[in-house]
Amino acid sequence: MNVTEAVAARVSIRAFRPDPVPGALVREILELAHRAPSGGNLQPWRVHALAGPVLEDFKARVAANMAGEEPEYDVYPPDLWDPYRTHRFQGGEDLYATIGIPREDKPARLRQLFKNTQLFGAPVGLFFSLDRRLGKPQWGDVGMYMQTVMLLAVERGLATCAQEFWARYPKTFGDFVSLPEGHMLFSGMALGYADDEAPINSLRTRRAPFEDWAVMSGFD
């Protein structure tokens, strides 16, 4: 598989098989991804990989606190405007359509939201943090590291789902892993083998046409 194929194949998976992922394979992916770029070579990312009984313990603690905590940041700006609002709305509608949940069925949508706390059944949870004294540019660096992880996972037959949802649980996570003082949880990621029979995994989110977001000038 080449890079182009991995980019095309990567999707956010929301139903995983329970098959364990070998620790050596997880470490290989995380170490290779460390070649991701970062401004000034700061390498700001810190990663906690949880699996097995440790992950089950963590998920149980989160499930006991569905209300969440004061989030580290707003995942989306308040009063989101177009075209971003439409992109988000379409993505949500298309997602729930794959599992037959109409907009008015709030309890069913909340049950689906709850699956975030269980990493959608993935056997591995990856959690990305950084020193909160670092700036927004370093948040971008962590994002590039995460994308590299996701593409390497695809190459190895694995699937992922990046989850900024975990910004809702900074204290629970920080206490659980003894996160150093002054570090913030940026995002989580489910990692494992996709359940290809799950209807929700048929989702392929729409993408705006090239002309909507790019301008090319000075080319032949």
Jot down its keywords.
alpha+beta; four-stranded antiparallel beta sheet; 8 helices; 13% strand; globular
Describe the structure.
The protein has eight helices and four strands; from the N terminus they run H-H-E-H-H-H-E-H-E-H-E-H. It is of the alpha+beta class. Strands 1-2-4-3 form a four-stranded antiparallel sheet, with helices on both faces. The protein is globular and about 55 Å long.
What does the average pLDDT come to? 94
Q: What is the CA-CA span between the terminal residues?
A: 32 Å
Q: Structural class from helices and strands?
A: alpha+beta
Strand content: 5-15%
Unreliable spans:
none
Helix content: 25-40%
Indicate the radius of gyration in whole angstroms: 18 Å
Strand order of the largest sheet: 1-2-4-3
What is the element layout, followed by pairings?
Layout: H1 3-9, H2 23-33, E1 46-51, H3 52-63, H4 84-98, H5 106-114, E2 124-131, H6 136-155, E3 159-163, H7 170-177, E4 183-192, H8 210-213
Antiparallel strand pairs: 1-2, 2-4, 3-4
